[in-house]
Every structure is written in C-alpha cells, then in structure tokens.
Amino acid sequence: MRDPAEEARLSDQLRTFGVTAERDGAPLYARLCQELATDAEVLGLLGGAPPLQRRPNLLLAAVHYLLLAGEDDPLADDYPTVVEWRSPGGDARRAEGDPADRFRSFCARHRERLAELLATRATQTNEVGRCAALLPALATVASRSDRPLALVDLGASAGLALLFDRYAYTYHLPAGRKRGAGDPGSTVRLVAEVREGRLPDLSLPPVTHRAGIDRDPVDPGDADRSLWLLACQWPDHLGRFGRLRDALALARATPGRPRVEAGDMVNDLAAAARRAPADSRLCLTHSWAAAYLPPVRQKELAEAVTAVARDRPVSWVFAEQPYEVPGLEVPPSPGGRADGAATALVLVELADGRRRCARLADVHHHGRWIRWWGWPD
C-alpha cells in the first residue's frame, strides 16, 4: 500500500537534492532528481530502503554501483565516471533524449537487484575532501594541548579521514596566494579555497592512536566494498571520483592502516575511548555521520561524549549540516554570517567538568571551500 505522506516527503527530498546537485556542478543528478521527483515507481523503489537511509543518495548510488560493476545499459553513457572507469580518457557521449527516461528504464529492468541494494547497503561517501577542514581543526586541538592526539572517528567507513596526515593540501588564499600543508609527495591531493579568515598553523599534529567505529566498516582491500564507496560519489565529479580511488589505493598500501571496528557510534563509544592511550588527548571526530541518526540518538551521542569526558579530557570535532543534527549543539556563525547551505565545523572541549563549544568554520560539504573563524580567544 502506498503511503502518500511518505511519497510526498521523498519527492521533496529528491527536489532538494536536485537543487544541491545543480549548485555543485552535477547536472546529471540535478536533472534526474527533478524529473523523477513525481515518478511513483521510483519513489516506491526508494521507499523500500530502511527509514534512516531513505534518501536520494542511496538510490542514486545503487544505480551507479551496478553501472560501475559492468551492467550493459545505454544509461552508462550518461555517467562520466562509468565511461572513465571502463575506458580511461573517454568522454561521456550524452546520448540524445532524456537521461531520466533511461534511468526509469534501468530501474524497471533491475528492480529486484536495486531493491536488494537499497535494503542492505548504506550511504557511505567517506568524502576525503573534508580532510581539508579536518586538518586545521585538528591543528587547533593540538595547539591547545601538550599531548599527542588519539583519534577516534565515528562513522568512519573505510577510515580514510584517519589518514589525513598522509595527504597533500593546497589552500587558495585571497589575492592569488597559496598555502601548502601535509605530505607534499602524496598521491592524494586536496585543494580548498579559503573564503574568509586566517587558517592556524597547519603543522601536522602528532598522532599516537587511530581508530574508527562504523556499523558496516569498509576494508579498502575489498574490491566490491571499495566499488560501493566509489558509487556513492557523484558521476559528474570526476575529480572527487579519482581522488577517492587514490585514497583507497594509498590506504591499501599503508602498513598497519587504522582499524575500523564494527559497532554503534553511540553504544560503543566508551569502549573505543578506553582503548586510546591515557597519555594522549582523546579527539573524537565525525563528518556527515550524525546526520544519519534520528534526533534522539544525536542527543544520546552528545551524552555519550559527555560521559567519556568524566574520565579524561575530550576534544570533539564534527562537521555536520546544522538542520540535519537538531540533537547536537551547533553554535551560530560569528556575526550571523552563516551560509544556510554550509556544513558547520564545530569543536567542543570537555575537561574537568567544564564544556566549551565553538563553530570553527563553515565549510563546503565536500571540502571545496572554508570560511574560517577559529577558536575564540
């Protein structure tokens, strides 16, 4: 039986996601989302996903995954990433006609396989570009402590953010200036525009412990799981796609790469914290992970962090879209300069029963740009 209210909600989600895709230079997804927002068959297919994963991203990733896996279909020619994957250096042909029609036909032909993917997979972007915001945040944490960092990443997926100091960074500053950071010889190169503010010292902080928690961890050495991560990328964004491929390859080549444990980011947080060395500064991180928790679980996450801080000082760094995390405290931007489409980068420090919270920056959700304000004096 159809649920008209749920169909209306999913339809609104598709339109909203389409607007985001249009703004971010992803015309294929923009077109598909706007055209399919009123398609009952597509909405019904998406409605089969678990409630907390019932988002356009998941259906789009499932279709992308089947195409990357080799499914022979005219829709493949509309996807630059699939063309590049199958024939490096090739160009998407952008066949005549509406790609939304080809998408509908693909979904109809592969409905059972798509339904299985929607029921069993989760959106896991593991967006490496966000490390361009994570680096100055961790540098800020390190500057406020005389101890090395012990990192625990929540919703860590393949653990790529835990390798933040293995990447090369270029920050574009006003007046054409640039600032480099990280490992200049890295195969993973991240670029971000600093639209406002002055970044802190970007010396790589010492890290003595790296661990992650994820409900469904991804082993970078698992070809199928890595393919799913790539499918969660947007097909018009060849640069992001290639960057993720490079990051996965780097992770595979890293001896003793960080381990991501299967677990719940709320229930298993205390145990993960206990495994961090006592002589380090515990730093909890997550980006676009709490957004997939219901508000009550977001509040429980905050309570779990507070509970950990009763035993040791904690720095909690998160990058989340404010309207997606009503259960977390997200301070307003300084001077009310918030961009409603931006992701908020927040640092919460908890020690000796005291709690301080600051919005360090507003950042692009894929890490393209930063408005940096830093920790208040």
Please report which band the strand proportion falls in: under 5%, 5-15%, 15-25%, 25-35%, 35-45% or over 45%.
15-25%
Helix fraction? 25-40%
Q: Report Rg.
A: 21 Å
Number of helices, where a helix is a run of at least 4 consecutive DSSP H or I residues? 12
Defining traits:
377 residues, eleven-stranded mixed beta sheet
Structural notes for this entry:
- This protein folds into two domains: 4-120, no CATH class; 128-220 and 257-372.
- Helix content is 36%, strand content 19%.
- The chain has helices at 4-23, 27-36, 40-46, 56-68, 80-86, 99-109, 111-120, 131-143, 223-231, 238-253, 269-274, 295-308; strands spanning 149-154, 168-172, 178-182, 189-196, 207-214, 259-262, 281-287, 314-320, 343-351, 354-363, 369-372.
- The chain has an eleven-stranded mixed beta sheet with strand order 3-2-4-11-10-9-8-7-1-5-6, with helices on both faces.
- β9 (343-351) and β10 form a beta hairpin.
- α4 (56-68) packs across α9.
- The chain is globular, with a radius of gyration of 21 Å.
- 46% of the residues are buried.
- The model has no long low-confidence stretch (mean pLDDT 94).
Fold blueprint:
Layout: H1 4-23, H2 27-36, H3 40-46, H4 56-68, H5 80-86, H6 99-109, H7 111-120, H8 131-143, E1 149-154, E2 168-172, E3 178-182, E4 189-196, E5 207-214, H9 223-231, H10 238-253, E6 259-262, H11 269-274, E7 281-287, H12 295-308, E8 314-320, E9 343-351, E10 354-363, E11 369-372
Parallel strand pairs: 1-5, 1-7, 2-4, 4-11, 5-6, 7-8
Antiparallel strand pairs: 2-3, 8-9, 9-10, 10-11
Helix pairs in contact: 1-2, 2-6, 4-9
